[in-house]
Amino acid sequence: MTTPFGTRLADAVAARGPLCVGLDPHRELLLEWGLTDDVDGLRRFTDLVVEALAGHVAVLKPQLAFYERHGSRGMAVLEDAVAWARAAGALVLLDAKRGDIGSTMAGYADYLRPGHPLAVDALTVSPYLGPDSLEPARRTAEQCGGGLFVLARTSNPDAATFQSALVGERSVAQTVVDTVGRWNAPGRLVGDPASDPASFADQQGRWGAFTGSHGVVVGATLAELDVDLSGLRGPVLAPGLGAQGGSVADLRRLFGDRAVVPSVSRDVLRAGADVAALRAAADRWTAELTA
């Protein structure tokens, strides 16, 4: 059975630092790089980013929509990139934000199956249809050693309209966090200090004992943390650094010593179509995050 995502993530962070870089090849960025907004430009962009970063950062996060918009040939570019990135040691988190029920959700979760043409390590999912809607994805993730990051308290300005609404005495966002925390509950967590002391030791300190394989998305741009993460027992994906206004100081203010995967896209990709420049931009963020 594949080593659980939580273990692989903790190992990658220990070896490379916690940085996650998004692959967001939208039209404006391709043109800014001097590339064409077509499959050829998409492939050139993707190859440059993967060459620059797959051997250096812990996580790469391709945004599925920017590949789907180019049809089957765009998806072929992504398939090649995911295989290349994982072979180079990066974990791949597919930013798909899928959410549905029953067999449809199970179909989305197939991205986590090792035999899938686009097999990835983890997947972002939306909980809007309710906790039970996520069960097919959770089951597939646990069977295949994959991970899920569930949208909880996101960084877009009007997110609180829904996410802060109350379900009984808890906000929607808190209900999501608590649901994911139950997935990571004792007995379903990563590692065993008795049978695997080295792996257990690697997960101490900032990443805590028993980092689970399922996490939540909480934006790094929040004015204050309005969800309780103490029972999560898993990682937080924190988008919003750099161009969106979030800083390393904000990460520490919001999350303290919790297991956080900070996500940066534009502040790395704006380095342009140059392998050395992209790598240097990512290295600067890694150095700041690990200082």
Automatic annotation (TrEMBL):
It catalyses: orotidine 5'-phosphate + H(+) = UMP + CO2. Its EC number is 4.1.1.23. SMART domains: OMPdecase (SM00934). It is an enzyme of class 4 (lyase). GO terms for molecular function: orotidine-5'-phosphate decarboxylase activity. The keyword Lyase applies. GO terms for biological process: 'de novo' pyrimidine nucleobase biosynthetic process; 'de novo' UMP biosynthetic process. Coiled coil: none annotated. Keywords: Decarboxylase, Lyase, Pyrimidine biosynthesis. Residues 18-281 form the Orotidine 5'-phosphate decarboxylase domain. Pathway: Pyrimidine metabolism; UMP biosynthesis via de novo pathway; UMP from orotate: step 2/2. CDD domains: OMP_decarboxylase_like (cd04725). PROSITE patterns: OMPDECASE (PS00156). InterPro entries: Aldolase_TIM (IPR013785), OMPdecase_AS (IPR018089), OMPdecase_type-2 (IPR011995), OMPdeCOase_dom (IPR001754), RibuloseP-bd_barrel (IPR011060). Belongs to the OMP decarboxylase family. Type 2 subfamily. This is Orotidine-5'-phosphate decarboxylase.
